[in-house]
Write a structure and sequence with these properties.
Distance between the termini: 59 Å
Structural class: alpha+beta
Strand content: 5-15%
Radius of gyration: 32 Å
Oligomer: single chain
Number of strands: 4
């Protein structure tokens, strides 16, 4: 404290600088006050200048929430009006007087439920907006981009050869029709003909088997002559399945006939991607 012995004089200087619009860092450097606690005491009671305040995306919501609270609205009503969480509302208006109760518990419960539904709706709209914007960022795919995406997709989802189990054949099984469509587009880019493809379905026996077969045939654009016998998975009554309903179509397996040579190239392409991504100059490559 010997360095700050003349505390009142130092505080007077700090307050003057603060009122001139200097930030804490500027005052610290100007007065050579390195002690955080001492600086707090010097500036106690002095609000920061406006230019140092960080903008808050929810400032407008906060001001509106306080305005509604002063009008006598409850947290539930404010949530219904603004679509923000009650925890945020509580933080923003907790210093304001509580309005008198004007409704029954049942009415309050109904309003609370409607407020939560509105919150969920806003969150879903925000999620969809982010997804749409991200989708637009992709634009069109060049052949090379599709080629690289297809290699990565196959190595993540396709059958792979192991030293203890030789499987040098191109086989992919998936339940996502978008994955299937991308995989097929990639195979056609590689020159694989439709005659080289064979399909088969694996599905729970309790599902709509005929509907699933029709769905996958339309998805791949192939007739039934390229489909093998559907494999049925036995239903265990003790198991609670999540994959049910109209959107459940089982899994589709795509096999490429006589594909050992193609598989070896895919494995080589994959490790080529890994090696290229590991090089120190990968950020500078076009």
């Amino acid at each position: 404290m010997s360095k700050y012995a003349d505390f009142e004089s130092l505080r007077e200087q700090a307050v003057t600088l603060r009122r001139e619009g200097l930030s804490r860092r500027q005052i610290r450097d100007r007065l050579h006050v390195d002690n955080h606690d001492i600086l707090n005491r010097l500036l106690q009671g002095e609000p920061p200048p406006e230019w140092t305040k960080r903008p808050n995306a929810k400032d407008d919501l906060r001001d509106k929430a306080r305005e509604l609270r002063l009008q006598g609205l409850t947290y539930d009503q404010i949530q219904l009006e603004l679509g923000c969480s009650k925890s945020s509302i509580s933080l923003w208006v907790r210093d304001l007087p509580k309005p008198p109760r004007r409704r029954t518990p049942e009415e309050s419960s109904t309003i609370a439920r409607r407020g939560w539904e509105r919150t969920l709706q806003i969150r879903e709209e925000e999620r969809l907006q982010v997804k749409r914007a991200a989708s637009d960022e992709i634009g069109t795919l060049s052949d090379r981009e599709l080629f690289l995406a297809g290699v990565a997709l196959y190595w993540a989802e396709g059958s792979k050869d192991k030293p203890h189990a030789r499987r040098e054949r191109v086989v992919l099984i998936n339940s996502d029709p978008d994955v299937i469509r991308l995989h097929l587009a990639w195979l056609r880019l590689l020159g694989v003909q439709d005659e080289q493809l064979r399909y088969s379905i694996t599905i729970h026996e309790s599902a709509d088997i005929t509907g699933a077969e029709q769905f996958w045939a339309e998805c791949v654009g192939s007739g039934t002559e390229h489909f093998g016998k559907t494999t049925l998975k036995r239903h265990n009554p003790a198991t609670v399945r999540k994959n049910t309903g109209d959107n459940y179509h089982g899994c589709l397996t795509i096999r490429v006939l006589q594909s050992a040579a193609l598989y070896r190239r895919i494995e080589g392409w994959w490790y080529g991607i890994v090696g290229a991504a590991s090089k120190p100059d990968h950020l500078n490559r076009a």
